[in-house]
Amino acid sequence: MRNAIIAAPMRDLDLTSLRLFAAVCELGNIARAAEREHIVPSAVSKRIAALEHALGTPLLERRARGVVPTDAGQALLEHARTIFFTLERIRHESAAFAGGARGQVRILASASAIAEALLEDVAAFMRAPANRAVKVDIEERVSREVVRGVRDGEAALGICWDNVDAEGLERRAYRSDRLALAVPRGHPLARLRTLRFEQSLAYEHVALPASTAVHQMLRRAAAQAGRPFVCRAIVSNFDAALRVVVADLAVSVIPVQVGATSASARAVRLIPLADAWAQRRFAIVFRDAEALAPAARRMLEHLASRAGA
Length: 309
Prior knowledge:
Helix 2 (about 15-25) packs across helix 4, helix 2 crosses helix 5 (about 70-100) and helix 3 (about 30-35) packs across helix 4.
C-alpha cells in the first residue's frame, strides 16, 4: 500500500491538503482539526475527499468517536510528516544563511590546539557580523577522547593531531606547529640553534599529564633513544610548564607558538627540535559535513581556511 502512495500522481497533492489531513489524524476529529486550522469542517472534508480520489484509496475510517487513518492513510501521514520536517529544515537553514547563522557549536580540542591558535581563530569567527548570534562551547580533551566524543555525538567538531585514528569520521586539515625545547636563558643548551630531543634527556623535564598525546610521544621518543624520560613536575598546561622553566627547575617541550607568545618568553630560550615528529599537523574531525547545522558548517569552513596559516 505504501508503494501505491509513493506512485500516486503527486501533481494532484498540495501542502495545504496534507497539512489538514495530518491535523485530522492527530486530533481524530474533522471538526476539531477545522477549528485548529481556522477553516470550516466541510472544506476539510472536501480536501480529504480530493486526496482520496487522487490516490485512489480511502485514507480515513469513520468511527463513532471520530476518524482514524487506514493503512494507506497511515502511510501517507508518515510521508507527510517527512515532507513537513524537510520544509521546516529548509526554512530554518535559509533564514540562518539570510540573516546570519544562529545556534551553538560545540568543539572538543586537544590542549595543544587550544593553547596555540584555536581560541584566536574562533574569536575571529565570532566577530564576523554574520556569526554574531552563534555561541561556541570549547572543551579540552586528549586527542583520543576528542575523536571518541565527536564519534559519539557529544560535539559537532573536534581538533586533534592528524595522526590519531579517526576511523568513521571525516577530516579536514587545520593548522600545523613545531615543537621546541624551552630552557632558561642561562642553561647549558641555550646556546644551541637546534637540537634533537635525545639531547634534552640528560636534564629533568616538566611535562603535561601522562594522558596527553604530547607526553606519550615524548616517552616513546625517549624509549627509542634508550634513555629515561625524567619528569620533575607534571602541570596542566603549557603556560604552567613555562613558569617552571623560568624558575630554572626543569626544561620542557612546548609548541614554538605558545612559547613565543607567552608572557614568560623573555626569560626562556626556545630551541626548535630537529626530530621529524616535532613538526605536527592538526586535523578537524566531524561525522558528516552535510549533516552539520549551518553554524557548525560555517565554523568548519572557517577553521579549514586557516590550514595554511
